[in-house]
Design a protein that fits this description.
The complex is a heterodimer of chains A (about 325) and B (about 250). By secondary structure, chain A is α/β, with parallel strands linked by helices. Helix content of chain A is about 25%, strand content about 25%. Chain A contains 8 helices and 16 strands. A 7-stranded parallel beta sheet of chain A has the order 5-9-4-1-2-3-10. In chain A, strands 13-12-14-15-16 form a 5-stranded parallel beta sheet. Chain A is elongated and about 60 Å long. Classes of the chains: A alpha/beta (about 325), B alpha/beta (about 250). β11 (about 185-190) of chain A pairs antiparallel with β11 (about 160-165) of chain B. Bound molecules: flavin-adenine dinucleotide (FAD) (2 copies).
Chain lengths: ~325, ~250
């Protein structure tokens, strides 16, 4: 028996999310009194793989076959379900993100399992197996029971946290025969170096209240001062107006984010926008309208014109950074 | 081109959520139900392609009779016919199995779903159908073109996008960008929708892999602490010393 975790890598590196998944799997494995097995697919070196054992992985399966360097939902799902079978995994754990959303449901069917996506905590019991998830786009939680022997879970980022739990690294190479897929990637375009809104710890986000695209410079400046953990995000109308790229659009129809700090500038706080930000640890709102709904969802509020407040905030942040 | 669009019947995005029956069920009383926004965009794009290049679009919902107005709306937008699988949808495993059975009987070239349903946010049904049918799939598609025999798609990836080509048949899960705005049915469309076929089929035997025991609402935030617009040093101090996020 075991608990299997698929730990995705980004150009050969794991992210904090990968370590959070291992921490979560360790908690699940404790209830079963069993081991945590991590599966890595792609080119990841030994030093990076061994990091997984610092958070509780008892064994790391390494599938580094060149054919797997490019993502393909069918191949990845096959490899993961083969690993789950050979390791007799009772529970298979994924992150809840765009890549794994293409694979975890396939793995679920292959294993004749029950799947709960968007888990926000460790299972409250394993017999029966009950776990809580977000539902109604963040407006509610649901306690869900899985009726199948095999379980597949996907965890929301930042829902569990990282816990150190050092184990001896046991890295084993893993093989899985390939089938051919009809879905072919014909072109990839990456504007590298830019942090995704999903990974940022701080988001400085702007709405239509900023009036024109040039004014987003004020938010970029704040993000620059806050450093490499920060980046700029926006509301749907801002992306629709092409003031900002669609990749920055946050909300029900955009990205669902969970940063430590979300600064909402000139954003009214429509329910569809809130659906994407309610998992943020702390929310700050800056808005001219003291009755804007965003304040109800916020921890700190400033009533004022963004074009006047942001330069002052940037000065204050600069002074703070200079002294820390 | 034979296209199937899978439609979830979900509460309006602005709906206030409440629960009944010891928090086991969602309170439908007085709620407006809509076509899930992700698949509404996918349907819109499919209709545009069909109008330019020809083909047939079937809209499908797994649900009880109450979902029929939602399917009629899909017909009014421009789908040619509709199928309702007569079952209370409670679980993605079961819903996907039902859809896969319909697909096996009708042999579609392209099966479209949304990225996720906005009620249970599973993001599971599309890829599960793909696995039941052993079809290739492309998920989270923001741009779609269909040519005879093949789909040309774009999807966002970390820090960029990838372009994918795939021969029919396949599953596509769509999201924002696949069409700019959802199509609004015209009066003529609404009139025609009444005459378009809506077939009801009985579900095949399958089980629910999961079951919702109880719902709850998130704890409401403690009140918002207001800071004067002239004192940004104070805001920075609070974020550092009190909230400890910078
Ligand atoms: C199906 C559906 C899905 C949707 N999905 C999303 C989604 O994913 N994400 C999303 O964001 N929206 C989404 N929306 C749109 C949503 O309903 C709102 O229209 C949108 O979030 C509003 O964006 P906004 O806050 O930028 O603009 P507005 O609502 O126009 O708000 C602008 C705010 O700026 C303030 N303001 C004006 N001037 C200033 C100033 N000088 N300084 C400071 N503040 C100022 C105003 O008081 C106001 O509160 C969706 C809508 C639908 C129907
Ligand atoms: C009143 C009511 C109560 C419900 N209660 C529950 C419940 O307690 N638990 C539960 O899991 N579900 C419930 N559902 C069903 C839910 O709406 C979904 O149909 C189903 O459960 C899949 O949810 P998901 O979040 O995994 O979908 P996702 O996997 O997120 O859906 C992805 C896509 O699949 C397609 N799709 C999803 N559902 C359907 C469908 N029924 N018919 C056709 N296409 C579909 C859509 O294109 C959608 O965008 C209820 C529905 C209604 C109307």
């Amino acid at each position: 028996m075991s608990v299997l975790v698929y730990t995705e890598n980004w150009d050969g590196q794991f992210k904090k999310l990968s370590f959070e998944l291992i921490s979560y799997a360790s908690e699940v494995a404790k209830s079963y009194n069993t081991n945590v097995v991590a599966l890595s697919i792609g080119n990841v070196d030994e030093a990076e793989l061994s990091k997984l054992s610092q958070y509780g992985a008892d064994k790391v399966l390494n599938l580094s076959n060149a054919a797997y360097t490019e993502f393909n939902a069918e191949y990845y799902a096959k490899a993961i379900s083969e690993a789950a079978k050979s390791e007799h995994a009772q529970v298979t754990i994924f992150a809840n993100n765009i890549t794994t959303r293409a694979i975890a449901p396939r793995v679920t069917i292959k294993l004749d399992a029950g799947m709960v996506s968007g888990c926000v905590a460790a299972p409250e019991s394993i017999e029966p197996f009950v776990v809580s998830k977000k539902a109604f786009s963040g407006k509610a939680f649901a306690r869900v029971k899985i009726n199948k022997d095999n379980k597949v879970l996907s965890l929301n980022q930042n829902a569990f946290g990282i816990k150190e739990n050092v184990k001896a690294a046991n890295i084993v190479s893993f093989e899985c025969a390939l089938e051919t897929s009809k879905a072919k990637v014909v072109e990839v375009s990456k504007n590298s170096g830019k942090m995704s809104v999903l990974d940022a710890e701080i988001l400085v986000s702007g709405g239509r209240g900023l009036k024109k695209p040039e004014n987003f410079k004020l938010l970029e400046e704040a993000s620059d001062i806050l450093g490499s953990v920060a980046t700029v995000a926006c509301t749907k109308p801002v992306a629709d107006l092409e003031w900002r790229p669609h990749s920055e659009h946050v909300g029900q129809t955009g990205k669902v984010v969970a940063p430590n700090l979300y600064i909402a500038v000139g954003i009214s706080g429509a329910i569809q926008h809130l659906a994407g930000i309610t998992s943020s640890k702390v929310i700050v709102a800056i808005n001219t309208d003291k009755d804007a709904p965003i304040f109800e969802a916020s921890d700190y509020g400033v009533v004022g014109d963004a074009l006047e407040v942001m330069p002052k905030l940037n000065e204050a942040l600069k002074a703070f950074k200079a002294n820390s | 081109m034979k296209i199937l669009v899978c439609i979830s019947h979900v509460p309006d995005t602005t709906a206030k959520i409440a629960f009944v029956d010891n928090n086991k069920s969602y309170n439908k009383e007085g709620q407006q139900f809509i076509i899930g926004p992700n698949e509404e965009l996918a349907l819109t794009r499919a209709i545009d392609i069909k109008e330019a290049k020809g083909g047939n679009i079937t809209a499908l919902t797994v649900g009880s009779a109450e979902v029929e107005p939602t399917l009629r709306k899909a017909l009014a937008m421009g789908a040619d016919d509709a199928i309702r699988v007569n079952m209370d949808p409670k679980d993605a495993f079961n819903v996907s199995k039902q859809i896969a059975e319909v697909a096996k009987a009708n042999q579609y070239d392209v099966i479209l779903t949304g990225r996720e349903a906005i009620d249970y946010n599973g993001g599971q049904v599309g890829e599960m159908i793909a696995e039941w049918l052993i079809y290739p799939s492309v998920s989270g598609v923001n741009d779609m073109d269909l040519e005879p025999g093949k789909a040309i798609l774009k999807r966002e990836i970390d820090g960029g996008y990838e372009k994918i080509e795939c021969d029919f048949p396949l599953i596509i899960t769509g999201q924002k960008g696949i069409a700019a705005e959802p199509k609004i049915p015209a009066m003529r469309g609404i009139m025609m929708a009444r005459k378009k076929p809506l077939i009801v089929v009985e579900p095949v035997q399958s089980d629910n892999a999961t079951e919702v025991l109880e719902h709850s609402l998130p704890a409401s935030k403690a009140s918002c602490k207001m800071v004067s617009a002239d004192d940004m040093n104070e805001l920075v101090r609070l974020l550092h010393e009190e909230a400890k996020v910078i």
